[in-house]
Amino acid sequence: TGGFFYVLGKIEELLKEVTLKETKKKKIDAFLHEISSLLSAIPETPETELTDQAWLPKGVQVPFLQVPFSVKGKFRFVPPTELKVVGSYLLGTCIKPEINVDVAVTMPREIFQDKDNLNQRYHRKRALYLAHIAQQFSKEKLFGSVKFAYMNSNHLKPILLLRPQGSRAWDWGNTTPEPPTPHYNNSILCDTVLLSHLHFLSSAATDFPGMKDGLALLKVWLNQRQLSKGLGCFSGFLVSMLVAYLLMKRKIVKMMSGYQVLRSTLQFLATTDLSVTGISLAKDVDASLPVLDDFHQAFEVVFVDPSGLVNLCADMTASKYHQVQFEAKRSMEILDDRMVDGFQVLLMTAKPMLRAFDHVFHLKHASKLQGACKKMQLLNELMDRGGNYVATALPFVVSLLARGLAGRALLVAHSLPQIPEWSIDAEPPKHKDVGPLTFGLLFVPEFAASTLEKGPQADHPEALDFRTFWGEKSELRRFQDGSICEAVVWEADTICQKRLIPEQIVRHLLKLHADIPESSICYNGALLESVIRTGQKESGTGEEAMVSVVCSYDDLSRKLWNLKGLPLTVTAVQGVHPALRYTDVFPPIPMKPIYSFHTRIRTKHLLLPSEEKPCPAYIAPLKIICHMEGSGQWPQDKEAIKRIKAAFHLQLAELLQQQHQLVCRPAVTHTDVYKDGYVFRLQVAYHREPLILKEVVTPEGMLKYQDTEESRQLELETLHLPYLTSSLHGLQQQHPVFGSTCRLVKRWVCAQLLSDNISEECVDLLVAFLFLHPAPFTPPSSPQVGFLRFLDLLATFDWKNNPLIVNLNAGLTGEQAIKNKFVAARSRLPVMFIATPKDRWSSMWTQERPSVQILQRLLVLASESLRTLEEQLMDPQNSQDVKVTPWGEDVILV
Amino acid sequence: GLGPCRRASRCALWFLREKVGRGIAPASLYRLFSLLCVKDSLSRLFTRCGPVQSVEICDKPGPGEKKEKQTSKFFNRKTVTGFQVAYVVFRKPAGVQAAKTLSREGPLLISTESHPVKTGISKWIASYAASVVDREELKAEVDAYMQDYDKKIAEEEAKAAKQEGVPDEEGWVKVTRKGRKPGLPRTEAANLRMLEREKQKRARKELLNFYAWQHRETKREHIAQLRKKFEEDKQRIALMRAQRKFRPY
Prior knowledge:
Chain A is an alpha+beta fold. Among the domains of chain B are: 1-65 and 78-119, RRM (RNA recognition motif) domain (Alpha-Beta Plaits, 2-Layer Sandwich), CATH 3.30.70.330; 207-249. The A-B interface holds A 2-3, 5-6, 9-10, 13-14, 16-18, 97, 220, 223-224, 347-348, 350, 601, 604, 606, 608-609, 611, 615, 635, 637, 639-640, 642-644, 646-647, 650, 653, 665-668, 701-705, 798 and B 74-76, 121-122, 125, 128-129, 131-135, 138-139, 142-143, 145-146, 149, 153, 185-189, 191, 229-230, 233-234, 236-237, 240-241, 245-249.
């Protein structure tokens, strides 16, 4: 991936792309100045009861859910004592796409009374104060728009969003000095320490140019993983504090570059579980301050600020932190892997949930979580969260699922509740307005589809716990080793049903423990699989059919190996048909001829279809290459070799018929063998034949080898295709959904009417790439996610400037050489270039197809299909039946 | 030209030209036909113009390159796709004249009730039946061919053995693999291998960085290499920037 400078240079370019330009900053500063003068000019208001809000003009609504409405206390507006820019803008770590300048407004002391920290009085006053400012500002021409929003979607923290005539957003918080019950308290405390946090961060950032760059990179990293927005997110502020913590602990030093800061921070995240061992920025040990254990009692994730009072990760669920940790671990592996372009994968590739997780499901109605709170007896927690039932129930729901899917799922993640901004004359959004919540499951491929959930022995005390957790699904079972245990057995007959066992678990547990009805859950696991379903009956998605083909083939190849009476031994039997690498869209189904539909011709041992009877079923022949031992007996002449091969075909047919009673039909170029309802087409190969076809004698009498069309074809058939087939067969053993993904993809290509323009082997290799080089993802464990990533790969890969290197069997070293040679010879190479360990320079499966135009068309179709499909899959209100049949210019969904 | 043939679905082009001299007998017609046309139906069709001597079918229209005789029933059979050309040779020149005026009599039908051309499922059934190879026949042909081949090889070998070590008229002796002192095989690969070996031998003899100037030279080259790499990287980045490859979202 190039030299040292190349990597640094790329990082530098990225930083240039995301950071603010100097001219912009000047404009922003001038704008801030104007705001400041406007703010001090806002008139005071007379003192009124908190509940008496008649003084507020009509054009503005209090940005706060005032439930219950009645509360004691008085309020009046006094212009702020202080206006301070806080947060990333001042530190210079503010990055695109959302340039927010946080401005903290300090409410004067006289507004506050004793006990304002109780009953949300502080929050009310804060909201009223904000409402008044909003109303005054809405009259000014200076602003393009004046809107409310929740800070990190926390409904206790409304902020004012000011956009200048243009389009950037400006954040306004407001703060007051006041002293500290966990989440509620934390939300008040946060406001009190805004300024001190700023001082803390700016002291960390002095003489440390790498911090600014490092933070920008970390924020890009978080943004690409959708971790930096919403309630309980890993915000830019949080990551800044983390870097400051690492600086304090000397894990980072001020000499470090941006890249080193990124690396050290990821290293720390990868190895530290803040949901078990929290960290604190508080320096002095003050006996009056709470200790870390106290924080762990109250919060799932603990990161205490310098004051020792505030938990910066108060809203974060343990699941979200584990996701961050998982991503950090994965990223560290990627950075250490020399085969991967870390820059591209870590910082430039987005990981939306649909493409990152194997199964994704939506909770259609967040309001159902209200019932969940009741069912799970979370009323105290609900109060603590100010009535926000979504935030209250979420951690419990996630940990419930995590326990139910333990062993099956590597990660159970959830989307972060997000509330969009609203205009100042509208009612503030309710809790249910967070929209549907999305959950993502990442599977352990070996165990995800297991039908059995084995529990403790019946007489153990844990058995009761197991029974309450699984409800009536749990039953006593006797196992082969004689033990009698509690166990849950999930019903699933076919492989595709087994893949959906997690769905059964999710639905069962949510119903049982959280009162969430099945109709509220929209589970996207196998919606696309209907297009690869085979047969008339409920016979699954053809995966079983493929296994049965391969079994029959294995048996045949054993029989060939042990065939007696051949003059030369069989050295290798290799399949070349797609079904033998599990990628045939519709694998052959065993067929028996219906005798009454045929005329029997005894002399030729032949069944001929009758014209007046229904047409017999087509049995696709499965081609197999049978390599014969090399020997001096082989003639060295191409015509003679053809005859000898024909003789072998005759003899193979005869011997198989004699020794194994198989019906065979020899021909010149092959022998068809009818076995178990399949037809195998045996083709004999002699390893020197391609070489003999290439022989040319020059006028000087020198023997030269030159590729001819015939030799190329023969090599493809007898050398390269068998190799590809066996490699992909191996891949299927490691990744059970490889075949199904391939088949989905082929269906898609066919639906675009482009199947003639791209070879099947090329599609197989593209899909193999997704499994062999999944970074920044993990290898797909469901056909759907594999398919989505295929579309993304096709649409975003830079085919013009890069070869796609598929490291089959990990047999490749020196890929840089391939890249260099590729660049040097680009114009002479196929438009889509795929290199494998055995085919580094020629990209044999894409040589003739696709053409430039077809590739271009494919890319357009892929990105359009991806967009439409993702939209559908992310929208649970939409119809469940997703079928993509893009046709012509537009994508039509049926 | 003539009207298109009705039943032959792929037959669209008809040419009519008189051919004189050159290879085939004077009275011949040449036309482009679709695959469905077969020899006997053609000769049947054209007998109405006069007695037909023969019908020849070939891939391309062209002056009488006489097709070499198909020697094998099983091997090297070409499958033809697309249009073929048929030469209809009449016994008498009058036949050609008659054929020229055929167009006025309406379309010619290849498939008639008395001689139907097989189509659809019956054609497939027939071609399936035809594809089945007679084992004995194939075996016999292969055996015969191999006997000939073995004989030919044996003869050649005997001839080569006789000439072994015998100088030709200029006094040169041909070195073969079979001789007492087998020479290198005359292949490209062997040549390349030898060149490579020579190169290695030469490299082994040279001393590396022995003289001060050699040392300086190596160093300079190394730095030049680094500089070149640096420039290349810079260019690559500039190219990527131009393509907006650094926008993360």
